[in-house]
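Q: what does this look like with zinc ion bound?
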Amino acid sequence: MIAIHDFYKRVGESATEAFLAIDTKDLQGILIGGPSPTKEEFMEGGFLHHELQHKVLGAVDVSYTDESGLYELVDAAQDQLFELELTQDKVVMRRFMKELVSEKGLAAYGESEVRHNLELGAVEVLLLSEDLRKTRTKIECTNRSCDFSEEQTRTSASSLPGNCLKCGSALAVTEEEDIVSNLSQLADKSSATVKIISTEFEEGAQLFKAFGGIAAILRYKTGHI
Ligand SMILES: [Zn+2]
């Protein structure tokens, strides 16, 4: 019993030394793995620093004692990791909803408004629905002596680009990019955080249905366009 107690203590000390050095907002969670009942004894024995204790997502059975045990742990903890992501999505969506109704109003939604705010560098967090299926395209006139071109957001249901407003010739799609990558690149320019939001919870489904799958929490208010 004393030997195992010492072992837990050593594991706890190593974990504390390694994890306390990480910024708490970067340390998203701790998974504990081991054969029963060691992982339970370790968790309940208070061997982890108290600040780390509440970061524990759960414990799973692991049989390997070498490095492959770590892979086994991450594999076995898929449910906990999915829950963690969902929780983070929920927190950020609630923050958006709160901003939406607050007087400060640090929220924007819909592609054109969000794009406008991204271009101003006013976006803190860009929220994109995981179900978003659109492309950002460049449309150009096929008449070589005409210089008409524009950017359009299209879906697989969009009709053909039609004819040029300037000369009447046919228009063609000349460049096409997934909207998630298009907006993410814009976000990177002003160091905005990009969050891909699951639709498997109420606010996440709402982001897709009510806000066109594109929304933002702003750094400062810029007014509607
Ligand atoms: Zn034209």
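The chain is about 40% helix and 25% strand. The chain has a mean pLDDT of 92.
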